[in-house]
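Narrative of activities, Objective 1.

The group set out to show that a structural description can be obtained from nothing but a protein's sequence at a throughput compatible with the screening campaign. Below is one input-output pair from the validation batch, recorded exactly as produced.
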Amino acid sequence: MFKPTVAAAVVLAVGCVAYGAQAATSTHRTMRIVATQHDFHEIGVGKKGPVPGSLFVFSERLAQSGKATGSDHIVCTFTGSWPVETDFCRAMFTLPGGTIVAEGASARGPFTVAITGGTGRYAGARGVVHATPTKNGETLDFVIDA
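Output recorded for this entry:
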């Protein structure tokens, strides 16, 4: 007699073994990109600065090894100032061969957000973007799971 619970357990076990084998052989692709802000807008900012829910919308020019390589478009929602000022941001990076989408909490210092997808050569991308602020923008270190 065939029991659904045994079949489900077998499927789950096989799936876990396959996932473990895939995770063990996973590699990462990295790239460093310098972002320079060129457009910035604040929406819904209070008299004394941002209030929870205020939006910051901006774009940056992207360069790799000093050569123009694309652009990004970012929307951040101010979420509060305690214990530190933070925003929740969603970004689309347009690069040769496709786009990368990332999102997560950002702060006024270095921060890391999750890569949640992409198109073209980055379709289904996962990983992280480490952002380090600079005087005119930020340095972006992409770590893409391959």
